[in-house]
């Protein structure tokens, strides 16, 4: 997820956003996507022009219910736009989205690993090399520069 600061406003280029703020924004995004009760791994990246967060989540929540992937691309765009507006950032325009996609494809063609593949690879390697416990998995992720934060959520019914 990229929380898009305005590319036309140098004061909002995103360099002053803390990791905690990025995690907080990501939590809002997960809530808006209906993923509030799902396990998630988040990683802040500052290796590009704009700080961003990568999120890997468990599609099945603790109650065994699967999250619906129906229209998830459009729901995700909406959720990112809502979070961006809440924190005072501009929404990325379509031409910018197309350019970002082109830039990603160029990186793949140049032999650079796509960020999704990189995160997936690190998580998969951590899982394969862990002893099957959550703590060991977290440790293996940490060795691959992935930080897993335990989120405590309270739920009320009725």
Summary?
The chain is mainly alpha-helical and 158 residues long. The protein has helices at residues 19-32, 72-86, 94-109, 115-129, 134-143; strands spanning 40-45, 52-57. Helix 4 (115-129) crosses helix 5 (134-143).
Radius of gyration, in angstroms, nearest whole number: 17 Å
Structural class: mainly alpha
Q: Specify the helix fraction band.
A: 40-55%
Helix run count? 5
Task: Characterize the largest beta sheet: strand count, sense, and whether it forms a barrel.
Answer: 2 strands, antiparallel
Principal-axes shape call = globular
- Strand line-up in the sheet with most strands: 1-2
Overall average residue pLDDT: 76
Query: pLDDT below 50 for ≥5 consecutive residues: which ranges?
Result: 6-11
What is the succession of H and E elements?
Answer: HEEHHHH
Percent range for β-strand residues: 5-15%
Q: How many beta-strand segments?
A: 2
* N- and C-termini, Cα separation: 33 Å
Oligomer: single chain
């Amino acid at each position: 997820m990229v929380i898009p600061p305005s590319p036309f406003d140098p004061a909002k280029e995103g360099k002053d956003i803390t990791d905690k703020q990025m995690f907080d924004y990501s939590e809002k995004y997960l809530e808006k996507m209906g993923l509030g009760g799902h396990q998630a791994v988040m990683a802040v990246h500052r290796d590009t022009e704009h700080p961003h967060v990568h999120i890997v989540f468990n599609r099945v929540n603790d109650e065994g219910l699967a999250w619906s992937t129906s229209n998830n691309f459009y729901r995700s765009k909406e959720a990112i736009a809502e979070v961006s507006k809440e924190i005072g950032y501009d929404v990325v325009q379509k031409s910018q989205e197309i350019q970002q996609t082109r830039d990603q494809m160029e990186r793949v063609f140049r032999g650079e690993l796509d960020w999704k593949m990189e995160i997936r690879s690190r998580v998969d390697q951590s899982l394969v090399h862990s002893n099957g416990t959550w703590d060991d998995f977290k440790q293996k992720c940490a060795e691959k520069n992935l930080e897993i934060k335990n989120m405590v959520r309270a739920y009320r019914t009725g």
